Amino acid sequence: MPVSTLDNKLIAVMGATGLQGGAVVTALLAAGHEASLIRAITRDPTGPKATALADKGIQVVQGDADDEASMAKAFENAYGAFLVTNFWADMNMSHEIAQTKTLENAVIAASVTHVVLSTLEDTRPVINAAADKESWKVLEEASGSYVPHFDGKGAASKEFFASAAPTTLLHTSFYYDNFINYGMGPKKHAEDQPAAITFPTGDGAIPMCSVPDIGRRVVSILKDPETINTVQGVIGASHTGQEMADLFGKVLGTPVVFNTVETAAYASFGFPGAADLANMFRFWVSFKPVHRDVATTQKCLGGKLDTLEEWIEANKAAFQ
To answer: C-alpha distances in angstroms, 220 versus 4, 247, 258, 303?
Structure first.
Protein backbone atom coordinates (compact mmCIF):
# COMPACT_ATOMS: atom_id res chain seq x y z
CA MET A 1 0.00 0.00 0.00
CA PRO A 2 1.71 3.22 -1.12
CA VAL A 3 1.90 5.69 1.73
CA SER A 4 2.52 9.37 1.16
CA THR A 5 3.57 11.91 3.71
CA LEU A 6 1.23 14.53 5.06
CA ASP A 7 4.15 16.84 5.85
CA ASN A 8 3.42 20.45 4.95
CA LYS A 9 -0.17 19.55 4.04
CA LEU A 10 -3.09 21.33 5.66
CA ILE A 11 -5.76 18.97 7.00
CA ALA A 12 -9.21 20.36 7.83
CA VAL A 13 -11.21 18.45 10.43
CA MET A 14 -14.94 18.79 11.00
CA GLY A 15 -16.31 18.03 14.43
CA ALA A 16 -12.89 18.63 15.95
CA THR A 17 -14.43 19.26 19.38
CA GLY A 18 -16.49 16.06 19.15
CA LEU A 19 -15.71 12.36 19.24
CA GLN A 20 -14.72 11.42 15.69
CA GLY A 21 -13.20 14.75 14.69
CA GLY A 22 -11.42 15.02 18.01
CA ALA A 23 -9.95 11.57 17.46
CA VAL A 24 -8.68 12.63 14.03
CA VAL A 25 -6.96 15.67 15.53
CA THR A 26 -5.38 13.51 18.25
CA ALA A 27 -4.22 10.95 15.68
CA LEU A 28 -2.68 13.62 13.47
CA LEU A 29 -0.73 15.06 16.40
CA ALA A 30 0.36 11.58 17.51
CA ALA A 31 1.62 10.93 13.96
CA GLY A 32 3.82 14.02 14.22
CA HIS A 33 1.69 16.33 12.10
CA GLU A 34 2.43 19.98 12.75
CA ALA A 35 -0.32 21.55 14.87
CA SER A 36 -0.43 24.68 12.73
CA LEU A 37 -1.29 22.51 9.72
CA ILE A 38 -4.42 21.15 11.40
CA ARG A 39 -7.55 23.25 10.93
CA ALA A 40 -10.29 22.46 13.44
CA ILE A 41 -13.73 23.39 12.14
CA THR A 42 -16.36 24.07 14.75
CA ARG A 43 -19.61 25.99 14.99
CA ASP A 44 -18.33 27.82 18.07
CA PRO A 45 -14.62 28.71 17.96
CA THR A 46 -14.92 30.44 21.36
CA GLY A 47 -16.03 27.35 23.27
CA PRO A 48 -13.72 25.72 25.85
CA LYS A 49 -12.88 22.68 23.69
CA ALA A 50 -12.08 24.89 20.71
CA THR A 51 -9.96 27.16 22.89
CA ALA A 52 -8.03 24.14 24.16
CA LEU A 53 -7.22 23.18 20.56
CA ALA A 54 -6.08 26.72 19.76
CA ASP A 55 -3.81 26.62 22.81
CA LYS A 56 -2.01 23.69 21.16
CA GLY A 57 -1.29 25.79 18.07
CA ILE A 58 -4.10 24.30 15.99
CA GLN A 59 -6.00 26.58 13.63
CA VAL A 60 -9.59 26.95 14.84
CA VAL A 61 -12.17 28.31 12.41
CA GLN A 62 -15.92 28.71 12.36
CA GLY A 63 -17.94 26.52 10.03
CA ASP A 64 -21.53 25.32 9.92
CA ALA A 65 -22.77 22.45 7.75
CA ASP A 66 -25.93 24.46 7.08
CA ASP A 67 -23.86 27.30 5.59
CA GLU A 68 -22.01 26.40 2.39
CA ALA A 69 -20.01 29.64 2.26
CA SER A 70 -18.65 29.16 5.78
CA MET A 71 -17.61 25.58 4.98
CA ALA A 72 -15.98 26.48 1.65
CA LYS A 73 -13.96 29.13 3.47
CA ALA A 74 -13.03 26.62 6.20
CA PHE A 75 -11.74 24.19 3.55
CA GLU A 76 -9.68 26.79 1.65
CA ASN A 77 -6.14 25.59 0.79
CA ALA A 78 -6.67 22.25 2.56
CA TYR A 79 -5.07 19.16 1.06
CA GLY A 80 -7.29 16.84 3.09
CA ALA A 81 -10.59 17.12 4.88
CA PHE A 82 -12.40 14.87 7.34
CA LEU A 83 -16.18 15.25 7.23
CA VAL A 84 -18.75 14.00 9.70
CA THR A 85 -22.42 14.82 10.25
CA ASN A 86 -24.46 14.33 13.40
CA PHE A 87 -27.89 12.78 12.89
CA TRP A 88 -28.50 12.80 16.63
CA ALA A 89 -28.37 16.60 16.87
CA ASP A 90 -31.99 16.79 15.71
CA MET A 91 -32.70 13.21 14.54
CA ASN A 92 -33.77 14.54 11.15
CA MET A 93 -32.69 12.34 8.27
CA SER A 94 -33.57 14.89 5.57
CA HIS A 95 -31.55 17.55 7.36
CA GLU A 96 -28.50 15.29 7.52
CA ILE A 97 -28.78 14.57 3.79
CA ALA A 98 -29.03 18.30 3.05
CA GLN A 99 -25.99 19.03 5.22
CA THR A 100 -23.96 16.38 3.39
CA LYS A 101 -24.89 17.98 0.07
CA THR A 102 -23.74 21.35 1.43
CA LEU A 103 -20.40 19.80 2.41
CA GLU A 104 -20.07 18.18 -1.01
CA ASN A 105 -20.50 21.55 -2.69
CA ALA A 106 -18.08 23.20 -0.26
CA VAL A 107 -15.17 20.76 -0.73
CA ILE A 108 -15.57 20.94 -4.50
CA ALA A 109 -15.57 24.74 -4.39
CA ALA A 110 -12.44 24.67 -2.24
CA SER A 111 -10.68 22.10 -4.48
CA VAL A 112 -9.80 19.79 -1.59
CA THR A 113 -7.49 17.03 -2.83
CA HIS A 114 -8.62 14.18 -0.56
CA VAL A 115 -11.89 14.02 1.37
CA VAL A 116 -12.68 11.37 3.98
CA LEU A 117 -16.42 11.15 4.70
CA SER A 118 -17.53 9.24 7.77
CA THR A 119 -20.62 7.25 6.90
CA LEU A 120 -22.77 4.16 7.37
CA GLU A 121 -24.64 1.93 4.94
CA ASP A 122 -28.16 2.49 3.63
CA THR A 123 -30.12 -0.43 5.05
CA ARG A 124 -33.05 -0.13 2.63
CA PRO A 125 -31.68 -2.01 -0.41
CA VAL A 126 -30.60 -4.88 1.84
CA ILE A 127 -33.79 -5.16 3.88
CA ASN A 128 -36.06 -4.65 0.87
CA ALA A 129 -34.39 -7.62 -0.83
CA ALA A 130 -34.75 -9.85 2.24
CA ALA A 131 -37.30 -12.64 2.47
CA ASP A 132 -38.54 -11.26 5.80
CA LYS A 133 -38.90 -7.68 4.57
CA GLU A 134 -42.51 -7.48 5.75
CA SER A 135 -41.44 -8.11 9.35
CA TRP A 136 -39.33 -4.94 9.45
CA LYS A 137 -40.93 -1.78 10.81
CA VAL A 138 -40.54 1.29 8.61
CA LEU A 139 -39.73 4.26 10.85
CA GLU A 140 -40.02 7.05 8.29
CA GLU A 141 -42.79 6.51 5.79
CA ALA A 142 -41.78 9.22 3.29
CA SER A 143 -38.34 7.72 2.71
CA GLY A 144 -39.14 4.12 3.59
CA SER A 145 -36.35 4.24 6.17
CA TYR A 146 -35.83 1.44 8.65
CA VAL A 147 -32.73 2.89 10.34
CA PRO A 148 -32.77 6.67 9.74
CA HIS A 149 -29.34 7.35 11.25
CA PHE A 150 -27.87 4.80 8.82
CA ASP A 151 -30.06 5.40 5.79
CA GLY A 152 -29.55 9.16 5.59
CA LYS A 153 -25.79 8.79 5.74
CA GLY A 154 -25.87 5.95 3.23
CA ALA A 155 -28.01 7.80 0.71
CA ALA A 156 -26.07 11.05 1.05
CA SER A 157 -22.67 9.38 0.83
CA LYS A 158 -23.68 7.53 -2.35
CA GLU A 159 -24.39 10.86 -4.04
CA PHE A 160 -21.24 12.41 -2.54
CA PHE A 161 -19.14 9.51 -3.83
CA ALA A 162 -20.51 10.00 -7.35
CA SER A 163 -19.64 13.71 -7.33
CA ALA A 164 -16.47 15.45 -8.47
CA ALA A 165 -15.08 15.42 -4.93
CA PRO A 166 -12.06 13.05 -4.57
CA THR A 167 -13.51 11.00 -1.76
CA THR A 168 -12.90 8.02 0.49
CA LEU A 169 -16.00 6.76 2.28
CA LEU A 170 -15.25 5.41 5.76
CA HIS A 171 -17.80 3.04 7.28
CA THR A 172 -17.51 3.21 11.05
CA SER A 173 -18.66 0.72 13.69
CA PHE A 174 -20.41 0.82 17.07
CA TYR A 175 -18.23 2.93 19.38
CA TYR A 176 -17.15 1.49 22.69
CA ASP A 177 -17.99 4.97 24.04
CA ASN A 178 -21.69 4.30 23.41
CA PHE A 179 -21.69 2.31 26.65
CA ILE A 180 -21.16 5.66 28.42
CA ASN A 181 -22.58 8.29 26.11
CA TYR A 182 -25.83 6.47 25.41
CA GLY A 183 -26.15 4.74 28.77
CA MET A 184 -25.75 1.27 27.29
CA GLY A 185 -23.33 0.04 29.94
CA PRO A 186 -24.10 -2.31 32.84
CA LYS A 187 -26.95 -1.20 35.12
CA LYS A 188 -28.44 -2.64 38.28
CA HIS A 189 -32.21 -2.75 38.12
CA ALA A 190 -32.52 -4.02 41.70
CA GLU A 191 -30.09 -4.23 44.59
CA ASP A 192 -30.40 -8.00 44.84
CA GLN A 193 -29.68 -8.50 41.12
CA PRO A 194 -26.42 -8.34 39.17
CA ALA A 195 -25.73 -5.50 36.76
CA ALA A 196 -26.94 -6.17 33.24
CA ILE A 197 -26.55 -4.99 29.68
CA THR A 198 -29.54 -5.26 27.37
CA PHE A 199 -29.55 -5.49 23.58
CA PRO A 200 -31.94 -7.03 21.02
CA THR A 201 -29.16 -9.10 19.49
CA GLY A 202 -29.64 -12.67 20.68
CA ASP A 203 -26.52 -14.68 19.90
CA GLY A 204 -25.47 -12.30 17.11
CA ALA A 205 -22.33 -10.18 17.13
CA ILE A 206 -22.06 -6.49 16.23
CA PRO A 207 -19.03 -4.67 14.76
CA MET A 208 -17.30 -2.45 17.31
CA CYS A 209 -14.29 -0.16 17.58
CA SER A 210 -12.72 2.55 19.68
CA VAL A 211 -13.07 6.19 18.71
CA PRO A 212 -9.26 6.64 18.71
CA ASP A 213 -8.99 3.85 16.13
CA ILE A 214 -11.40 5.80 13.91
CA GLY A 215 -9.04 8.76 14.12
CA ARG A 216 -6.01 6.63 13.34
CA ARG A 217 -7.84 4.99 10.41
CA VAL A 218 -8.67 8.41 8.95
CA VAL A 219 -5.00 9.41 9.11
CA SER A 220 -3.96 6.15 7.42
CA ILE A 221 -6.42 6.89 4.62
CA LEU A 222 -5.24 10.47 4.14
CA LYS A 223 -1.68 9.16 3.84
CA ASP A 224 -2.67 6.82 1.01
CA PRO A 225 -3.82 8.55 -2.19
CA GLU A 226 -4.83 5.18 -3.64
CA THR A 227 -7.78 5.15 -1.25
CA ILE A 228 -9.35 8.05 -3.13
CA ASN A 229 -12.58 6.87 -4.79
CA THR A 230 -12.73 3.75 -2.63
CA VAL A 231 -14.87 2.61 0.28
CA GLN A 232 -13.03 1.70 3.49
CA GLY A 233 -14.02 0.60 6.98
CA VAL A 234 -12.87 0.55 10.57
CA ILE A 235 -13.56 -2.24 13.07
CA GLY A 236 -11.77 -3.49 16.16
CA ALA A 237 -13.78 -6.67 16.79
CA SER A 238 -17.25 -8.15 16.61
CA HIS A 239 -18.78 -9.11 19.95
CA THR A 240 -21.95 -10.83 21.06
CA GLY A 241 -23.91 -9.41 23.96
CA GLN A 242 -22.73 -12.28 26.15
CA GLU A 243 -19.10 -11.56 25.27
CA MET A 244 -19.60 -7.91 26.16
CA ALA A 245 -21.15 -8.84 29.51
CA ASP A 246 -18.32 -11.27 30.26
CA LEU A 247 -15.68 -8.61 29.52
CA PHE A 248 -17.42 -6.06 31.74
CA GLY A 249 -17.66 -8.62 34.51
CA LYS A 250 -13.99 -9.57 34.18
CA VAL A 251 -12.72 -5.99 34.35
CA LEU A 252 -15.18 -4.70 36.95
CA GLY A 253 -14.75 -7.74 39.16
CA THR A 254 -18.48 -8.24 39.57
CA PRO A 255 -21.03 -10.34 37.70
CA VAL A 256 -22.60 -8.72 34.64
CA VAL A 257 -25.37 -10.54 32.79
CA PHE A 258 -26.62 -10.13 29.26
CA ASN A 259 -30.34 -9.70 28.71
CA THR A 260 -31.52 -10.20 25.16
CA VAL A 261 -34.91 -8.81 24.20
CA GLU A 262 -37.00 -8.71 21.06
CA THR A 263 -36.50 -5.82 18.64
CA ALA A 264 -40.00 -4.50 19.36
CA ALA A 265 -39.36 -4.57 23.10
CA TYR A 266 -36.14 -2.57 22.75
CA ALA A 267 -37.95 -0.09 20.49
CA SER A 268 -40.57 0.40 23.22
CA PHE A 269 -38.02 1.46 25.85
CA GLY A 270 -38.99 5.05 25.20
CA PHE A 271 -35.70 6.91 25.03
CA PRO A 272 -35.12 9.11 21.94
CA GLY A 273 -34.04 6.96 19.01
CA ALA A 274 -34.94 3.65 20.66
CA ALA A 275 -36.77 2.32 17.58
CA ASP A 276 -33.92 3.44 15.29
CA LEU A 277 -31.33 1.67 17.43
CA ALA A 278 -33.51 -1.43 17.77
CA ASN A 279 -33.63 -1.79 13.98
CA MET A 280 -29.90 -1.02 13.77
CA PHE A 281 -29.05 -3.90 16.11
CA ARG A 282 -31.36 -6.22 14.20
CA PHE A 283 -29.74 -5.16 10.92
CA TRP A 284 -26.24 -5.80 12.21
CA VAL A 285 -26.98 -9.29 13.48
CA SER A 286 -29.13 -10.22 10.45
CA PHE A 287 -26.72 -9.21 7.71
CA LYS A 288 -22.94 -9.35 7.48
CA PRO A 289 -21.57 -5.80 7.82
CA VAL A 290 -19.81 -4.67 4.64
CA HIS A 291 -16.50 -2.80 4.24
CA ARG A 292 -15.39 -3.76 7.76
CA ASP A 293 -12.60 -6.28 8.21
CA VAL A 294 -10.53 -6.65 11.37
CA ALA A 295 -7.40 -7.89 9.58
CA THR A 296 -7.49 -4.99 7.11
CA THR A 297 -8.00 -2.43 9.86
CA GLN A 298 -5.19 -4.01 11.88
CA LYS A 299 -2.82 -3.86 8.91
CA CYS A 300 -3.66 -0.23 8.21
CA LEU A 301 -3.09 0.72 11.85
CA GLY A 302 0.26 -1.00 12.17
CA GLY A 303 -0.94 -4.15 13.88
CA LYS A 304 -2.53 -2.77 17.07
CA LEU A 305 -6.24 -2.26 17.62
CA ASP A 306 -7.88 -1.06 20.82
CA THR A 307 -9.84 -3.87 22.45
CA LEU A 308 -13.12 -3.62 24.32
CA GLU A 309 -11.42 -5.03 27.41
CA GLU A 310 -8.78 -2.28 27.30
CA TRP A 311 -11.46 0.35 26.85
CA ILE A 312 -13.46 -0.92 29.84
CA GLU A 313 -10.30 -0.93 31.96
CA ALA A 314 -9.55 2.68 30.99
CA ASN A 315 -13.13 3.76 31.69
CA LYS A 316 -14.23 1.48 34.51
CA ALA A 317 -14.82 4.38 36.90
CA ALA A 318 -17.87 5.24 34.79
CA PHE A 319 -19.45 1.90 35.69
CA GLN A 320 -18.65 1.74 39.40
So the answer is: 10, 29, 35, 13
